[in-house]
Each structure stands twice: as structure tokens, then as C-alpha cells.
Amino acid sequence: MEKIDALDRKILDIVTRNARIASKDVAMECGVSRAAIHQRIQRLIEMKVITGSGYNTNPKSLGLGTCTFVGIRLERGNLYREVVSKLDAIPEVTECYFTTGPYTMLCKLYARDNEHLMDLINNKIQGIHGVVSTETLIVLEESMHRPISICETTRSEEPAEEPITDNVATFAATLDDDLD
User: Fold this and answer.
1) Is residue 11 predicted with pLDDT exceeding 80?
2) What's the sign of the alpha-carbon dihedral 143, 116, 80, 53?
3) What is the pLDDT of residues 133-167, one digit of tens each?
4) C-alpha closest to that of 13 among 122, 151, 105
């Protein structure tokens, strides 16, 4: 796998804080051309460092006021993939993880209210073949939600590279193109 360098980390830090930022603004902040930003982002996508993009929605504004984590114990761990495919068919389930510890799986889901939650757990999740038991943890408040800090958590043991700069004339011409 190709390594990511200091410029890649800086680009990732910027775009994970604001995915709608214009390439010219990323280029300006990084001191490189807009073309260099496009090439770097495309390479990061091809390397699967960047795995998606989109908009975040507020579940409460969509009528889903109850956020819940459900710990699921399976009859056998090798049923995991089969159970995941069944959970994937439940639109309220937004995340699912195969875990160690007291649960075979941990899922995050959103429900309208406690009645809806009870229906999801009793009639949908617990009805899946291989599910032995569930434990429900209702979220009272989301205290923190953020993307991983690119610059602080992904530094390698190698010394940081010098910032990359392009020819000033090329950079200025690119900015002029962006303004048109």
C-alpha cells in the first residue's frame, strides 16, 4: 500500500472537517495547485483512504428520536454474515460491528419511540435465525461525534516531510482559472 504523506494528511484533515469545501480553498490552504488537490484526492479514493462522502442528517428531525445500541449474542459466530444480511434489511439499523467481548455483534439503530424500539427488537432482531439474546442500551444524549483526527492520530514514526509547493506562476494561473 502506498504511504500517505504530510500533504495527504493535511488535505484529509481539511476535507473531513468540511466535505463541501472548494478545491481552490483546499489548494490555497495547502499551498499547492487545485490540480494537485484533485490528483491527491483521487489517489486517496483509489487507495481506499477516502471511502465515501455525503451529507449527515439529524435523525430527530426525521422523527427518529430514540438512538439505541443493541448488543447481540449469536448461537455461533459463523452465523455473523447471515445475520448481517438480515439486519441490513432493517432500515433503522445504521451501523453493525462484529465484536469481541460479551456480544457477538453491536448495532446502532434509530427508532421513533420506545414502542417502535420494542417492535424492532422483539419482532425483527430477535426473530433472526441464530440470534440467542440481545441487550439494549438507549442513548440519553450524544455527547461527542467527530471524524478521526487525521493530523494527530495518523502520524507515522518517520519525520514529517517538507511541505510541497508548486511553481508560483502555475499556482497563480490555477487560481485565476478558479475565479472565472
Assistant:
1) yes
2) negative
3) 999 999 999 999 877 877 665 455 444 444 444 44
4) 151
Q: Which domains does the chain have, with CATH numbers?
A: 1-55 (1.10.10.10), 59-138 (3.30.70.920)
pTM, 2 dp: 0.72
Residue 51 backbone dihedrals phi, psi, to 5 degrees: -115, 0
Residues 74-92, mean pLDDT to the nearest whole number: 96
DSSP calls for 75-139: SSGGGHHHHHHHHHT-TTEEEEEE-SSS-SEEEEEEESSHHHHHHIIIIIITTSTTEEEEEEEE-
- C-alpha cell recorded at residue 82: 447471515
Dist. CA 36–CA 7, nearest whole Å: 10
